[in-house]
Here is the input.
Amino acid sequence: KQHFISNQALINKKVLVTAAGTIEAIDPVRYIGNRSSGKMGYAIAKQAALLGASVVLVSGPSYLPKPEGVTLIKIENALEMREMVLKEYKDADIIIKAAAVADYRPRTVEENKIKKNEERLILQLEKNPDILQELGQLKEKNQILVGFAAETQDLIKYAKDKIQRKNLDMIVANDVSLPGAGFNIDTNIAKIIYKDGKIENLDKMSKDELACLILDKIINKYYNVS
Ligand code: CTP
Ligand code: CA
Here is the structure.
């Protein structure tokens, strides 16, 4: 069934979105990164702005242009993303964490380019803070916190576990091993899972369509628009 959303449904609301992958420096010329393009987060930011929200998009490196009407804050690594998110979340009504944050960063960043002197090179990695989990602890009752989960197995089990562990209202779960889902493509096959355990299976759709649908669900569920 289709819900009607007025195109100003998010007026006077602040929406904070994170997008793209973080990159973690190894030395001045190298980094650890991931395959996230930023398409999902940028699509959400664009749609939220079209619905009248004041939108702040905190993004890792991405070739995508700044969506119109959105404040774009570019960062590189997870620690910088955390810092900007913690600066911006307090007055946000809706926080959507679509970013693929690197779970680990090199323990030290070499000052000079590493030379290929060793036959085997061991990189020591340190766990990054979980930004979403921190937000889950900090959030106020009226703030809506939405996470993403990309899995290659046991999608629902892991996604439900993340809802609990990170105190989320909703998670958008993707099986990235399916054709037509995942990184750097224009479509997704997602499941939306709510705090109460309810699951909605969505068809394969474009990331723009999925962005509309996610915002539509939030508006209808939490702002009682019908
Ligand atoms: N996330 C985050 N900070 C991190 C890691 C993840 O804010 N350091 C957020 C992501 O933006 C996403 C959600 O947590 O919204 C789930 O990310 P995911 O990588 O699926 O889960 P992890 O908790 O990192 O667990 P794992 O990678 O082991 O599955
Ligand atoms: Ca992770």
The radius of gyration is 18 Å. The CA atoms of residues 104 and 183 lie 19 Å apart.
